[in-house]
Amino acid sequence: MGSSQSMSEEVRELVSKTGFSSDQIEQLHRRFKQLSGNQLTIRKENFNNIPDLELNPIRSKIIRAFFDNRNLRKAPNGLADEINFEDFLTIMSYFRPIETNMDEEQLEHCRKEKLRFLFHMYDSDSDGRITLEEYRNVVEELLSGNPHIEKESARSIADGAMMEAASVCVGQMQPDQVYEGITFDDFLKIWQGIDIETKMHVRFLNMETIALCH
Amino acid sequence: MAFKARGTRLKLGFPAWGLLFLALWMLPRVLGTEEIPGHNSHAKEGFQIVTFKWSHVQDPYIIALWILVASLAKIVFHLSHKVTSVVPESALLIVLGLILGGIVWAADHIASFTLTPTVFFFYLLPPIVLDAGYFMPNRLFFGNLGTILLYAVIGTVWNAATTGLSLYGVYLSGIMGELSIGLLEFLLFGSLIAAVDPVAVLAVFEEVHVNDVLFIIVFGESLLNDAVTVVLYNVFDSFVSLGADKVTGVDCVKGIVSFFVVSLGGTLIGIIFAFLLSLVTRFTKHVRIIEPGFVFIISYLSYLTSEMLSLSAILAITFCGICCQKYVKANISEQSATTVRYTMKMLASGAETIIFMFLGISAVDPSIWTWNTAFILLTLVFISVYRAIGVVLQTWLLNKYRMVQLEIIDQVVMSYGGLRGAVAYALVVLLDEKKVKAKNLFVSTTIIVVFFTVIFQGLTIKPLVQWLKVKKSEHREPKLNEKLHGRAFDHILSAIEDISGQIGHNYLRDKWSNFDRKVLSKLLMRRSAQKSRDRILNVFHELNLKDAISYVAEGERRGSLAFIRSPSTDNIVNVDFSTPRPSTVEASVSYLLRENVSTVCLDMQALEQRRKSIRDTEDTVTHHTLQQYLYKPRQEYKHLYSRHELTSNEDEKQDKEIFHRTMRKRLESFKSTKLGINQTKKTAKLYKRERGQKRRNSSIPNGKIPMESPTHDFAFKEKELEFSDPEETNEYESEQMSGGIEFLASVTQDTATDSTTGETGSDVPLTGYSSPREKLPSWKPDQANPTSGPPEKPLLLLPACLQRPWTQNYSSLDNRGISTLPPASEYTKPYEGKPPETSPKTNSSQKNPPPANPGYGPENKGDSANPKQDPPAVGLKEELVGPAPKALPEKRTLLNMHAHLRSAAARRVQSRRSFHRPKPLRYPKLQKLASLPQSCHILPHSLEQEETQL
Fold first, then answer.
1. Contacts of B535 (CB under 8 A, 6+ apart)
2. Do A58 and B488 lie within an 8 Å CB cutoff?
3. How far is it, in rounded angstroms, from Cα A158 to Cα B83?
4. CA gap B321, B138 in Å, rounded
5. Does residue B196 register a pLDDT over 50?
6. What is the spatial distance between Cα A182 and Cα B211, in angstroms, rounded to a whole number?
7. Residue ranges of A 145-184 with Cβ closer than 8 A to chain B
8. Distance (Å, rounded) from C-alpha B205 to C-alpha B214?
9. Which of B482, B577, B679 sits opposite A194 (nearest CB)?
10. Is there a contact between B236 and B157 (Cβ–Cβ < 8 Å)?
11. Neighbours of B83 (CB within 10 A)
């Protein structure tokens, strides 16, 4: 393709870092500029301009994930104020579909990365544990789209899920044992048997998308 | 299954009938007598008490008998698991049909029964397709819609064209000999033999259990290719009747246009009727009994309507089922849903059985057989080869776009799973012999193809799937976490698509679900249904319900809920805990048990109960548990006949009830066990040991027993425990109440638990009350000065709103006690014998919380009044002490309950209490109390009077 010849050093670097093709990067770059208003970085407010996002019940969590230092692989905690295009791509690369030629190890790695992203989203205080409180929070938000579900039900659902998690992860619990929250290892356990690879991915198109028009 | 009645058939048929229906041996003989010539003249002679009118019932009778035979055959097949696990049922039915057909033929020498297109298309096919649509896993289906459509449209066209053309090519080479078949006829044949058959696919794949994606692709293809088949068939049929030379380019274009009209039109009809159906079920609240009927009638109408408009009927009814399912399932009642489910499955499975059996029977008719080895064999080869080639080509194309790649193994199964079936047969029978000279050859080839694919491929696909290690579908227990994460994924993915500015699958789904929620659901669902229609809520509900049900089931299994009593043996708890997460029913019982027993046993009170398993306790506990879980176990239905009322809605109520309770139980146990809020071993142990002295301890404030140094300790411990108690409930209290009580949680957490789980308390506002608790260690020294009040205070640490009804009087009581009571030793003694007895009470009342707030006042009064009826000497003291332990459980109770349950349970507790008190003094006191004004704050006064008497 024409673009590959004119591929700059910068883009090549991004390709190797994120695994996106140069076309996809170009594509995403255009979108990035659109979102940022031709700035070099995106701030949280920029995301508010996406009309489709408005209806998403967990949009705040998702937007937050974009600025989460853990996801950006910059720091063990905290939030970034603004992200540049590379960071943007880093986040997007979590959602890249798995390659067909991946070996077992790469698959496992890919899987873990994807799950880590999700885990970070739940674990809002970056302490490596999803506590009941955090879980409840997420569930409440998650179900807030349905006006018929009251907060209490959301909470009790979170409680139930936490209980389930505890029974999956710890199994036999002593009566006085305390389950403090879901650690990442527990999180992996919960996800065992569900192929996240097939779930957590977005098709990034190579070609011009219709979506560009908005 | 047309019953071509011929005049002589009956007579000739008798031996056959006799052979066929040994069970109905009488019938032929009776029939025989009917035919005796003199019979009729006899009948004319006068009024016949009994007349035999076979011809009157003949047709429906025969139909019913055939259905019976088919159904009985199914029973027979399933008698042997070995056979059915190897041979697919459809193959067995075909063989049976062949045998039966052979018998009929041997007797009759006429093929009396065949599968006619009319019967097949009007009566047998719709239920099967409706069933497929109505139970279609929508998400999976639409997730793979692109793939399915490609296979269904392009794949079918490809198959038809290549098969037809190749056969024509071979025909031209002369191998087949002289046949009067033109190119168009070959194409016509190709088009009818090309389509994968939904009935056959469903029948075989249901037994194979391949993974969902593979199944939906093959099955979806077989459903959606109907439009292509219908169009191709019609086009070529009309071309054939036109004559090859008269077909113009315009006709070809028309044919292509008609494809879109037929497929989209059929789909549209289906959607319109689905809309209608959903709308109608929204208003069937008062005609529940005919509710299920609407589902069938309206979907059937969609089928007939599109048939009438010569659109794709299969598409219409499929999409009718697919689109209406969500709303219909939400709208109709639980019972109706079950009815629909079973009726649909019954009809579909019955129709399928009959189809295959009659395919077999129809084959036994020499008049249709025209054998042409080359043609038949080549057809078999071509359809298999071209299917495989088509699948590989299309998959190659698809895999460029698919997220989940279709691998070689999948492709093999897909090509091999291209079964042909009754649709092809019915279409070929429909051909006009005058126009298509080689109809009989086509028919016999089709039969061979169908038999080959269904029997041979059906037989071998299972071993093949096993040999290739195709990913099987696994049955998973619904898990809450999974659902929640799944939901989160949906939102994340659609958000990512939004952000990255793409219109993808997730984007579309998200938009659709928004539209659905905002418009469609509001329009098509009952208001009440809109509420409960959340997947996650459903799973949650399901889990809870399962818990409750298996809890009771387990109880029954062990005999009369004995296990609830057996908390005295610790191992049960342990066993249950050790049970790994279940997958089977049996396991789920233990899972449930783990949940629930843990509630029972890890409960503060219950820990103690393990030690002291006293009859009384057990009975109380069992009773309450029974009452709680077996809500009106043997309620009596009114056995009145009514055509319009099935049953009362008690079941639903019960379900709801169980649901609510289990939900609480789960939460409760969760809080107490998993979050380890208050049960440190130490306290538990101490608690157990000292439980009996508890009451005494609470009297420490009196300062009458300072010499018993250990008691201080106990007192302290005990108080801790007492606090942990309401705390446990606190979680869901907070759900029900405004949260005024929540401080208790944080209080106990600070004091009673060493664990650092701040979770539960973190959102909880601390009130001023918490401070005394937090300083608990600091008031330990207080015990040196036993007369000081502080130890008392904890007991009063109750949410204000809850306190009101009785703590008020209680506290006043206490104060009085402190000031006026004589040495405690005297009082405590008589009481010491009792702990086991009272503890059960607290236990039970705690675990099966009786009543709720509203009406609680009076009852509570009664409760506290009862103790007062105790022997005057001890009574007062005990009064002071007794209610103390009870207090918290009851508080807790207050929060839990369902109002309508309340009175009964409370009364029971109450009556038990009073029952165990010394009787003689009861009545006088009661009378006395009765004479007193019945309000809370009066009580203290009455006590005061007693005190002064003392």
1. B483, B487
2. yes
3. 47
4. 10
5. yes
6. 30
7. 145-146, 148-149, 152-153, 155-168, 171-173, 175-181
8. 10
9. B482
10. no
11. 13
Distances from the Cα of B654 to the Cα of A157, B629, B647, angstroms: 21, 9, 13
Does residue A214 belong to any structural domain of this protein? no
How many other CB atoms sit within 10 Å of the CB of residue B346? 13
Q: Touching check for B663 and chain A: CB below 8 Å?
A: yes
Cβ-in-10-Å burial (0-12, 13-18, 19+) of B430 comes to middle
Cα–Cα dist B224/B314, whole Å:
8
Each residue of B927-938: pLDDT tens digit?
A: 444 444 443 343
- CA dist A45 and A42 (Å) reads 8
CATH, residue B362: 1.20.1530.20
Tokens 């006799």 locate to B18
- Of B63-72, B169-178, B643-652, B676-685, the range with the lowest mean pLDDT is B676-685
Which stretch, B28-37, B586-595, B614-623, has highest mean pLDDT? B614-623
CB atoms within 10 A of CB A44: 16
Residues of the domain holding B175 = 91-468
Q: How far apart are CA B598 and CA B591, in angstroms?
A: 11
- Residue B424: inside a domain, yes or no? yes
Quick one: average pLDDT of B669-698?
Answer: 45
The CATH number of the domain holding residue A146 is 1.10.238.10
- Structural domain count, chain A: 2
Domain interval for residue A110: 100-199
Partners of B591 on chain A (C-beta within 8 Å) are 167
B258-304 residue pLDDT tens = 888 988 999 999 999 999 999 998 888 888 888 889 999 999 999 99
Q: Does a structural domain hold residue B78? A: no
Other CB atoms within 10 Å distance of the CB of residue B39: 11
For residue B466, what are the CA distances in angstroms to B206, B460, B461, B580? 15, 10, 8, 28
Beta partners for residue A82, in sequence order: A43
CA B214 → CA A61, A64, B201, distances in Å? Answer: 35, 37, 12
The residues, ordered by sequence, that sit 6+ positions from B28 with a Cβ below 8 Å of its Cβ are B14, B15, B17, B18
Residue A43 is encoded by which pair of tokens? Answer: 């701030």
For residue range A50-86, what is the model confidence (pLDDT) as tens digits?
Answer: 777 777 777 777 887 888 777 777 777 777 777 788 8
CB-CB contact of A40 with A60 (8 Å)? no
Look up tokens 């527990």; give the residue: A186
Beta strands in chain A (DSSP E): 41-43, 82-84, 129-130, 182-183
Chain B residues in contact with A95 (beta carbon < 8 A): 493, 496
Alpha carbon of B530: minimum distance to chain A alpha carbons (Å): 7
Nearest to B597 by CA among B666, B653, B657, B659: B666
- Cα–Cα–Cα angle for B18, B20, B23, nearest 5°? 75
Question: Could you tell me whether strands A129-130 and A182-183 are parallel, antiparallel, or unpaired per DSSP bridges?
Answer: antiparallel
Closest to A211 measured CA to CA, from A27, A15, A26: A27
- The reply to whether the predicted model has a pTM over 0.90 is no
Q: Does B759 touch chain A (CB under 8 A)?
A: yes
Q: Over pLDDT 90: what percentage of chain A? A: 0
Among residues B147, B145, B218, B139, the alpha carbon closest in space to that of B399 is found at B147
Provide the residue type at B419 as one letter. L
For residue B432, pLDDT over 80 is answered with yes
ipTM for this model = 0.85
Within a domain: B264 = yes
